[in-house]
Amino acid sequence: MEDKLMLMIPGPTPVPEQVLLAMAKHPIGHRSGDFSKIMAEVTENLKWLHQTKNDVLSLTVSGTGAMEAAIINFLSPGDRVLVGSNGKFGERWVEVAKAYGLNVDTIAAEWGQTLNPEKFRESLEHDTNKAIKAVIVTHSETSTGVLNDLETINRAVKAHGEALIIVDTVTSLGAYNVPVDAWGLDVVASGSQKGYMVPPGLGFVTVNARAWQAYTTAKLPRYYLDLGKYRKDAAKNTTPFTPPVNMFFALQVALRMMQAEGLENIFARHQRLSAATRAAVKALGMPLLAPDTAASPAITSVIPDRVDAEQIRAVMKKRFDIILAGGQDHLKGKIFRIGHLGFVSDRDILTAIGALEATLQELGYEGFTAGAGVAAAAKVIATM
């Protein structure tokens, strides 16, 4: 059957019909008064979502582009930075920092384990000369489903007094409470195809006063990703370069939907979906990669020890039109990942788990009682 595809991956995430319909409208001039009105509304609602009064800048990039902009606008060649790396995206920020000639110290953990905040604290306390200019952290590590303890790491950065904290919230913003102003986060990056419920194409960067001060002396090369240009034009409700106009139509509608649901309800829904998914997988007798104490609200990584991960994904797609994510790098073929981020409901989780049970039966997996996964998920949904 056509048009029944169900995305259960960490991005792109499902897009609401009214958001898709907004994109189908005829484009308008991006220098017009009508577009400026949309830009003004979108910017105000982005500040609401980020829980900030700081600048929230919209770029025509993916989440990686937003993070690259977050890194290069506030640093100079040779600057020392600490980068947390416990998955694919932590490793990516190490690569970006090195590509721009930064002096990188990596604080690492095994994939599936959390970054240790104590290691950040120790490194920052030993930096008596204040040589460390920035700490770069992935909040929700998409490749593993681990949620790092951003709040505690940030406290260590604030105690240092000089270093900026630059945060990848690509799969946490809009799914988990990230109070930018309350925590004093300096630079925060995210992407439209995740919790925002919009297709890929827009990246967002928040910048506070401390970071803007660093911007004035930063010397890394930048042009299209020069956030100073975006800040100047955002004050006039416009953009320095041609934006994807129809994406702003979509974002306008999506942010209105998020406001109607409310931040606390959004966070509670993602927590419920994560808990239900994890309970279901445990009931099916399959190990989880991330510990319960550090489970991402966006994605659950499963280690199917008695059945092939890629076979599961293939049957889920062929038989049920449900797309699950695979493992990356050395976890390729060893895990599959169930996304529950953005426009995902309780019904979607029950549907996916039911299909997963049918898939496991088809593949001859005998490590569970039929119906156990759906029952476990339903129990969590009924009580949260």
UniProtKB/TrEMBL annotation:
Residue positions annotated to bind substrate are 337
Q: Name one Pfam family in it.
A: Aminotran_5
Which PROSITE patterns is this protein grouped with? AA_TRANSFER_CLASS_5
Q: Quick check: keyword Transferase in the entry? A: yes
Q: Does the keyword Transferase apply?
A: yes
GO function term, MF aspect, one:
alanine-glyoxylate transaminase activity
The Aminotransferase class V domain sits at 10-328
N6-(pyridoxal phosphate)lysine, modified sites: 194
A single GO BP: glycine biosynthetic process, by transamination of glyoxylate
Which cofactors, if any, are listed as required?
pyridoxal 5'-phosphate
Alphabetic keyword roster? Aminotransferase, Pyridoxal phosphate, Transferase
Q: Which family does it belong to?
A: Belongs to the class-V pyridoxal-phosphate-dependent aminotransferase family.
The name of this protein is Aminotransferase
Source organism (scientific name): Stenomitos frigidus ULC18
Question: What are the top taxonomic ranks of the organism?
Answer: Bacteria, Bacillati, Cyanobacteriota, Cyanophyceae, Leptolyngbyales
